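Input protein
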Amino acid sequence: MTTQAPTDVGSTSAPWGGAAERTNVAGPLRRVPVQGRSVARVQRMLDACAELVDEVGYEGLTTTLLAERAGVAIGSVYQFFPDKRAIVQALTLRNLDGYLQRLSTRFAEQEFGHWWEGVDAGIDEYIAMHRSVPGFRTLHFGDVVDVHLLDDERDNNTIIAEQLANLLVDHFGAAAGPRLNFALAIAVEAADALIKLAFRRAPEGDPAVLAEAKALIREYLHRHVNTITAR
């Protein structure tokens, strides 16, 4: 049984001034927390989950460990989540929302003169989350658990690519359509693989690999969106 996740746990909206764009994800919660104490308890569980996956990995994560780390009864865990996969799904939704909020702040505070600067900001925020957000370098956007963790029909990176497509269309006037979607799907997959390589090579991300990742993505996308200028 699934219910829609509350905004506090993980909802997505377009952060660049366009219309809201939700991921159509059926939330992993058994019961939506309404009261403030319940919302705070769920957030503590997600925080504990993030810490534990960095320490023991997804395979080593158990609901018992999570309850102990969060300081809640095991019954409280099962009150909201059926299993550890659902907890990780909720954490991943929260991370996706956090990523979009980071982009929202970046676009509100900074003027971009060219489409590449917007894409570059998206890459920078993804790298920053690897460095600063507990659990993110282990889970990313959920592919460690299931490539369809965010959505039953679309894989996790497709959802990210669609959000970036919205950015280019809404902010830089790119022509929406299959060509742009395909190009961004390729770019997101390539960037994701190279950023993971960078963080396998160095705890803070190998600078040389990260620089090559940006250069590769920029050169590839220039063949598809090089006519875009900022509105």
Q: What stands out?
A: The CA atoms of residues 49 and 88 lie 7 Å apart. The chain has one domain: 7-225. Residues 1-26 have pLDDT under 50 and may be disordered.
